[in-house]
Amino acid sequence: MFSHVFIGVGDFERALAFYRPVLAALGLAPRFCDASRPWAGWQETGQARPLFLIGAPFDGQPHAAGNGQMTAFLAPSRAAVDHAHALALAHGGVSEGEPGLRPEYHAHYYGAYMRDPDGNKLCVVCHDAPA
User: Fold this and answer.
1) Lowest mean pLDDT among 1-5, 52-56, 70-74
2) CATH superfamily of 4-56+69-126
3) Rounded CA separation 46/91 (Å)
4) How far is 29 from 45, CA to CA, in rounded Å?
5) 99/63 Cα distance (integer angstroms)
6) Is the pLDDT of residue 130 over 90?
């Protein structure tokens, strides 16, 4: 469905320190990192798309997080949701909702919500029943 998702950041090195461990915990592999631009991208191993990208806004203006915008990452398990949320907080993120069931979405929706150091809202979610 998606080609790529791009998240603007204000401090590229700080953003890398946040996203590298979180995305690695979700099994996403680095595709490239170009600090001179600056931007970086991740993908599922063996898949060209979709890409998740971070970088300075293209128009050269300062980054500003949007209200009502969120990027949600699919996790392979509830334990991966817990782990990614903990890593996010350990690397400068702020919790917007602890890991747990959200039955208002569906019976097996297990998610966690956080903001990255630039204020971008993120979700990590597993839709599967516990194994």
Assistant:
1) 1-5
2) 2,3-Dihydroxybiphenyl 1,2-Dioxygenase, domain 1 (3.10.180.10)
3) 27
4) 6
5) 28
6) no
- Altogether, the residues listed in the chain come to a count of 131
Residue 60 DSSP label: S
Q: How far apart are CA 18 and CA 71, in angstroms?
A: 15
Dihedral, CA of residue 19, residue 20, residue 21 and residue 22, to nearest 10: 40
The neighbouring-strand residues paired with 115 are 94, 121
**Which phi and psi (to 5°) does residue 126 adopt?**
-120, 130
45 vs 97: CA distance, rounded Å: 29
Residues 6 or more apart whose CB falls under 8 angstroms from that of 62 comprise 10
pTM of the model as a whole: 0.92
Q: Are 25 and 83 in contact (CB under 8 A)?
A: yes
Contact predicate 90/113, CB 8 Å:
no
- Quick: pLDDT tens for 55-78: 999 888 989 988 889 999 999 999
